[in-house]
Target: Thiol reductant ABC exporter subunit CydC
Amino acid sequence: MTAHLGPVRAAGTTRRLVLAALAGAAADLAGVALIASAAWLITRAAEQPPLAALSVAIVAVRAFATTRGVFRYGERLAGHDVALRAQAGTREGLYEALIPAGPLPQRGADLLSRMVDDTDAVQDLLVRCLLPAAAALVTGVAAVILAGFLLPAAALVLAAGLLVAGLLLPAATAAAARRRSATIAPARAELAARVADLVHGAADLAAYGAGGRALSAAMAADGRLGRLERGQAWINAVALGIGMLAQGLTVVGVVLAAQAAGLARVPAAVLALAALVSFEPVLPLAAAGERFSGVLAALRRLREIRATPPAVTEPADPAPPPEPPLTVEVRDLVVRHGGREPALDGVSLTLTPGRRVAVVGPSGAGKSTLLSALMRTVEIESGEVLVNGVDVRRYRSDDVRARITGLTQDPYVFQASVRDNLRLAGPEATAEELSEAVRRARLEAWAERTGWDTVLGEDGRTVSGGQLQRLALARALLFDPSVLLLDEPAEALDEETADLLMADLLDATRGRTTLLVTHRLRGLEQVDEIVVLEAGRVVQRGPHADLVTAPGYYRDLWESEAMTRQR
Ligand code: ADP
Model:
């Protein structure tokens, strides 16, 4: 059991859990006591005794009716408090596990479904499985003891009935749901992924008339999930029916036993009604059994995420963070993604303070992988990266990323104001620093026109590709890393916008240690060295003037760029 609970953060929850279980049990016990005392009161009253003989029972009925409500309220409050805390803690633990893991193999929607639905399961585990089971156990045992005092034979019948409804049925629903539970969560993730495709890919789907197909795929996923969930509902409904049948038969059995033993009318009525009501907390356990299977499947999926190994190994005894200015030396670097061919195969380059190096090469040459290795988001297979003469693996990866970082390939606009989108890179930045970064990224006019408080992002104002890259550049300049990394800043921009951006970018990075990954050669005469990568290897290197005259990838690309411009 504790192994299953691996992903659940239970800090400080045990005390609250016990409190909630006690309140739940007290509420159910008060329910049984209420019905038993009411049964006694009604049947005794039918015998028309003096009123004084009933006064204790009258008070008891009132007291149990009131306390039941109070205890139930307490149970809901404490139960949900502990469940929400456990859920929040679990989610927090997952985030902590995910941060060092780097990009995950799961699709975004699947991951989201795990983060949302599967962590909800933690709440269900406590509120819908463990707490009801504890309350049902206490109530069942108490009812059997009460019945034992009145008539031992009836207690046996009641115990048998309660065991069927409270143990056998939940075990059966859990077993029946086990196979389904393993398929329901992936089916839900599949539906989430299909819906995400429909929403995010709407423009492409419309452009190629593929909306119908995508919609049918989503409907099919919805249908599959619906069928599985209906199956679950069936199991629950049948189990509840059997449970109620067990309840009815038990009450009949108790009444027959009372008759056979010649029990007086009053204790017989108390016995029968107490038996009837003691099933109340027990009947929902069948559905809890089914849910328990689902919860175990969800916890398994959470464990999978938590078990994702970190992208890079952190040093046991980290070196103190490197002091700027930084010198980065890459020596014979080999990096491999999974078991594939090396993405980088013996790459060397040096970035001394203030030096700007550009990396060019065809798509898939390993350019982004080189940046990832410098930012410590992929592990080095062999060779080394020295930062101020110390192997980068000896620093904490956070320390490296705090100094060697920059513009990523897919900069993201958050649903936040222009100011807050920039402040991401400098929460403490003053208004002057913000303006300076924006000015150097040549985004000043846009920022003034748009307004610093205008909300951008998903439900806000959209930004063009060029503005997005400039926004990302302003962020990078604001962060002011010792070594600025720029990954394809002019990617996906039209010719004119790209030329303007590159010119501004080369201007803004003058005198700054920069590694620029680019597929555009215009302006590269300004950088100190250009490294041409092909299939993970350095095939050419040198300043623009040398490369453009030597036969090879660089000259070919330069000529084709020139031809495009002439057209
Ligand atoms: P570039 O930036 O030059 O286009 P990349 O560094 O992105 O090249 O990719 C180099 C090679 O590594 C490619 O073959 C690519 O398919 C592979 N690759 C990159 N990232 C990953 C990854 N996360 N998992 C597996 N393979 C990857």
Notes: The pocket of adenosine-5'-diphosphate is lined by residues 103, 337-338, 340, 343, 361, 363-369 (CB under 6 Å). The mean pLDDT is 89. The beta strands are 328-336, 342-351, 356-360, 382-387, 390-391, 404-407, 483-487, 514-517, 529-534, 537-542.
